[in-house]
């Protein structure tokens, strides 16, 4: 028997189905094309990390501390949870301020251990030694006990680094004190200052030379030995005059 011809209604349904499939296919193609085109444009709007940081000024480590001849900024910091040490109570004899980056770090440990060892030499000049960092009092207490230090460690903790900033010794980018030394006379005037590179132990020679000059054991303005061989020439101020100068 010959196949039946499709009815008019069935023919319309078949044609409608084909048209619908064609529109769906075109729609998918259109979405795919739109998606492919939009990806590069979207990616181009996302700045790379390098580009996003371009033009942003990053804070640097300290480059210049208070010079000799400057009045030392007053401070009062905790040496223990229930004890505060102020600069004013140390008036009347020389004071050594040793700002350092952090408890427990290798270079700081070597530096402070050296000062602990030569403390009797400092005391011959009737000088008081003070260590200062942004660590808290409990951290200082544990550190001093572990290393058997015989001088106070003060917590420049809150506001963070406030005293270090006053002395020009705060490393903003690192969020800690730089490695800076100051020798003050009995009237609280800075007579010698030195800023060491973060990873370099500045030693004690510069401190001892400054104390000798203060006591009259050495001529005023006698160049102090470079404790770290860092290419810095310093002079001890006489009568409140003079300053450390970097060798050119």
Protein described:
By secondary structure, the protein is of the alpha+beta class. The protein has two domains: 7-43; 76-246, Glutaredoxin. It has seven helices and eleven strands. It has helices at residues 8-44, 49-53, 106-117, 119-123, 137-147, 162-166, 205-215, and strands at residues 76-80, 83-86, 95-99, 128-133, 153-155, 170-171, 176-177, 179-184, 190-196, 232-233, 245-246. A five-stranded mixed β-sheet has the order 5-4-3-8-9. A two-stranded antiparallel ribbon has the order 1-2. The chain has a two-stranded antiparallel sheet with strand order 6-7. The longest helix has 37 residues, at 8-44. 31% of the residues are buried.
> Which structural class do the helices and strands define?
alpha+beta
Shape descriptor: globular
Q: Compute the separation of the termini in Å.
A: 113 Å
Which percent band covers the strand fraction? 15-25%
> Taking Cα atoms only, what radius of gyration do you get, to the nearest Å?
35 Å
From the 3D coordinates, which CATH architecture of the largest domain would you assign?
Answer: 3-Layer(aba) Sandwich
Mean pLDDT: 75
Strand numbers in spatial order across the main sheet = 5-4-3-8-9
Q: Characterize the biggest β-sheet.
A: 5 strands, mixed
Count of structural domains = 2
Low-pLDDT residue intervals, each spanning 5 or more residues:
28-59, 218-248
Q: What is the CATH C level class of the largest domain, in words?
A: Alpha Beta
- Number of β-strand runs: 11
CATH topology of the largest domain: Glutaredoxin
Put simply, the count of helices is 7
Order of helices and strands: HHEEEHHEHEHEEEEHEE
- Fourth CATH level, the homologous superfamily of the largest domain: Glutaredoxin
């Amino acid at each position: 028997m010959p196949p039946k011809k499709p009815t008019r209604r069935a023919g319309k349904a078949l044609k409608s189905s084909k048209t619908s499939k064609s529109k769906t296919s075109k729609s998918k193609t259109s979405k795919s094309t739109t998606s492919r085109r939009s990806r590069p444009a979207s990616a181009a709007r996302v700045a790379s990390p390098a580009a996003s940081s371009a033009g942003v000024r990053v804070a640097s480590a300290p480059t210049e501390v208070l010079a000799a001849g400057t009045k030392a900024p007053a401070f009062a910091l905790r040496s223990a949870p229930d004890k505060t040490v102020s600069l004013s109570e140390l008036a009347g004899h020389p004071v050594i301020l040793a700002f350092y980056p952090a408890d427990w770090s290798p270079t700081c440990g070597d530096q402070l251990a050296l000062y602990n060892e030569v403390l009797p030499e400092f005391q011959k000049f009737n000088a008081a030694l003070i260590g200062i960092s942004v660590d808290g009092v409990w951290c200082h207490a544990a550190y001093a006990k572990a290393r058997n230090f015989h001088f106070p460690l003060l917590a420049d903790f809150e506001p963070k680094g406030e005293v270090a900033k006053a002395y020009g010794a705060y490393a903003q980018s690192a969020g800690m004190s730089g490695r800076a030394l100051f020798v003050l006379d009995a009237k609280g005037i800075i007579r010698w200052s030195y800023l060491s590179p973060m990873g370099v132990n500045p030693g004690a020679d510069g401190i001892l030379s400054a104390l000798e000059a203060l006591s009259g054991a050495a001529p005023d303005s006698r160049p102090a030995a470079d404790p770290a061989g860092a290419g810095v020439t310093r002079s001890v101020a006489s009568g409140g005059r003079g300053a450390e100068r970097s060798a050119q």
